[in-house]
Fold this sequence. Notes:
The protein is an alpha/beta fold. Helix content is 30%, strand content 19%.
Amino acid sequence: MKKIIPCSIILLFMTHLSSAQFKPNYDEAKVPEFQIPDLMTTFSGETIKNSEEWNSKRRPELFSFFEENVYGKVPGTLDNVSFEIVERNEAALNGKAYRKQIEVTLQKGNRSLKFNILLYLPKNKNKAPLFLGYNFFGNHTITKDPNVLVTEAWTMNNEKLGITENRAKEASRGVRTNRWAIDKIVDKGFGLAVIYYGEVDPDKNDFSDGLHALFYKEGQKQPKANEWGSLAAWAFGLSKALDFLEKEDQVDASKVIAFGHSRLGKAALWAAATDERFAGVISNNSGCGGAALSKRKFGETVGRINTSFPHWFCDNFEQYNENEEALPVDQHQLLALIAPRPLYVASAEEDQWADPKGEFLSAQNTFPVYGLFSKEGIASQSMPKVNEPIQNVVAYHIRTGVHDVTDYDWEQYLIWAKKFIE
Ligand code: GTR
């Protein structure tokens, strides 16, 4: 159960658990025997024969399962969402882009929450398709652009990146430019919109702040067992950003791709599953609870993720800790909720914690559902070689290197997005 416990105790517990109790399996021979739950058979045993049956029967029951038991439900609706452009420039990125910074205010009763969108749009496009995603340490970290506002929200400490006392300062401007190929994106005619995820919900096991607190009934201190954890809150934030993008003339809101790395890749997948306005989704190294199959128990497991990050999923998900066999679904069924929209899953060779093979198998196993819509998934059941992407409506690559987002990743995403989204 989620309780508010001091960080030091959580850290102690995590260290204890990681060294003494939890040994991740990285040996393919020790992956348990399991059946990948069938996409095309409903929970009551009915066979799905066409896209209508998928849309009316199978998709809704799978969606409900993930909502009730994995990510958690959004417990209500907002009273108001408003947008204010707080900064703009017509000559950003050496004159080739527009820059806007937008403050979004979410209102529920007498409570409100604000977060900021940083938006770059290519000037040579009337209406640009766009990537929308979160960053880990603040919008100012993704570019050296001195006009980007430094976040005032709680931030995870990272001395290497110049973030101490849980506050980002000028010192961290541009420290994550390596993860955001802004020039390449804009040069290819795409826009980019980013949000610091901590402004939507701080990434800590404390439900007193962020989006959750906005929706509490009187006296409530934490979400119910089937209500949203942080991943679902971040997904909801992406949808609210999309509400703004729909009003923005220079954006083609029918071509917005949710993008995310790692935990933010998990959030991007859930955002695209919950909000069908997203034209597609890219999961970069999202791993456990993202693209990777849980039943392989390779690298990070359900028990481990729920212990290290008790606030990410809903409490109901804890019944599957060390008990993946009992799950009536697996993550390929989350990916299938994206169909028929374009889906890109990417892994990194040295990111074994995220189980590249489990990510591949998950993407590959969506094949029959995309087929119902006459869209091409991944037919081959064997993993492609490193740095040899498969790019159909469902795409996959595994690149050399570690858990990260690199220029190589963005180059592949752009080739694919030109073909399947633009
Ligand atoms: C890890 C976590 C992963 C992944 C990653 C990240 O510590 O175990 O599930 O989300 O963090 O977000 O960088």
